[in-house]
Amino acid sequence: MCDKFFDFAGKKVAIDVNKLTYTKAFLSERTQFQGDIPSLKPPIPGSEGCHGTEKVLRRGFVCADCGCCNRRLFWNRWFCENRGFTLDATMQPYPDHVLEEEAAKFDGLMSRRRRQNAVNRGSAVSDLVEEAESAGDTTDRSISDKQMTEDSEVDESDIDEDDSDMAGAGQSKKNTNGTLESTVRESPSEVALDNGEVDLLATRLNRKVIRLMQNLSFGRYTARQYFLPDIDGNIIGSLTLFTSNPQINAMANGPNDLYRQLELLDIGLRRNPAAIVGHKLEGLTRHFQQNFGARYKFGVSVQSKGFDEAPEVILRALHRLRWAGQSAVKATTQMLTGRDCGPNAPPTETKDFNELLALGFMEDDRINYHDDGEKELGPTVAALSLGSPSVMRFRPKIKSGLGEFVAKRSNGKFFMDVLEVPMKHGDMMVMHGPAIQQLYEYAVEPMGGRRFSLTCRHIDPEKMASDEDRQDAAVKGAIPEYSHSFAYNGDI
Ligand SMILES: [Zn+2]
Ligand SMILES: [Zn+2]
């Protein structure tokens, strides 16, 4: 012991350390804690001020029964993976005024994007903006996003470096240099366009890559169709965006009704293992899924119900998407008639959809760049978007060899997006042409708190691995006779 220890303000006290004892009063001293004793176990995230899809409700919870930490597995309930404790997580209807606020904010953001990305200007200006954006792309969200991903979630496919620039889109003027900003205006007449056409939908459009496009109308929908090329300029497929409107949305069994049913009905939505399956570090899909019809088992294995077990809301969406798919493919074929598109030409007809994948997205749930290129999948994919808005972005894969026409991102690993389009409540998207999946990839970025996407495909039984799978697909993928009364014609 230090010999200064018992030296009190210069007065040295002679103490024999070996004879020191504790007094009873010291040993018995207790002071009662005043106030509520807080529990170390956090309560299950409450619904106060929440509607059910907020980020705080998606992260996970501590089981009230066993006290263990759990992931949020199901859309409509809390479920403990230890001992099966279950508690309903009731969804409140997402308020109309919140949806309206989201839509208004989204429209503002999209029109800024259109100006910044010079959608209706000559390609020279677009390129300058792209370069400036890419040079000023210092907000490295790929890192922060991954760090914030608390339970090593992954998206539908491989984790890509997320090079989203949406977050800063509102203020990205700081990134571009001042002169550009003042020259870029959304007035198409000022500069001659490479290929004439004014685009009123896209928020980014690389006109060197996408040179063929058209406006269409189907029923009460207006639609915009873009044709995607390969390196030789041959058209390999089309992307058709059906833009809905308040009139369509409000029709009986239209998008408003479908949304309101889906958000409350338990259709089985859950997150599925997507990475290091079975390991304690297993990662789940970011969004919640339920498959109907033929089984979808690519990458992530999704639980499936036959169409005969599907609720009416799913079958109504299916018939809407059948109509959209057929309409878009017909228009594609008409446009390409007489044009030699080479070996990767899109098929002139579509195959009937036998599968529908329902996805539920809570706040901030995104789908990173991926393709749907599995060999069993037919040439056409159609998707209906319900609820909160989102942005869909397309870029060529590096292997497309399109470097002459599109710049790379500043990291050099990916191309810039060549097309970016808004997807709002009631909108539909049809992608047609299998080679698109080989040469392009796409991402969907959410811009609100609650969204559903219903996606239809044709899964080719002939390419399935076993007779059992083929049998299963034929039974589950058969569209029930009674549902043909839901056939959709564009609300005309
Ligand atoms: Zn438990
Ligand atoms: Zn996909």
TrEMBL record:
Tell me the ranges covered by the Alpha-ketoglutarate-dependent dioxygenase AlkB-like domain, including all copies: 287-457
In residue numbers, the region (Disordered) covers: 116-191
Positions with biased composition (Polar residues):
172-182
* Residues involved in 2-oxoglutarate binding: H370
Q: Name one GO biological process term.
A: DNA alkylation repair
Compositional bias of type Acidic residues: which residue ranges?
A: 150-165
The record's listing under Pfam families reads: 2OG-FeII_Oxy_2
Gene Ontology terms, MF aspect: broad specificity oxidative DNA demethylase activity; cytosine C-5 DNA demethylase activity; ferrous iron binding
Record's compositionally biased regions (Basic and acidic residues): 138-149
Task: Please give the name of this protein.
Answer: Alpha-ketoglutarate-dependent dioxygenase AlkB-like domain-containing protein
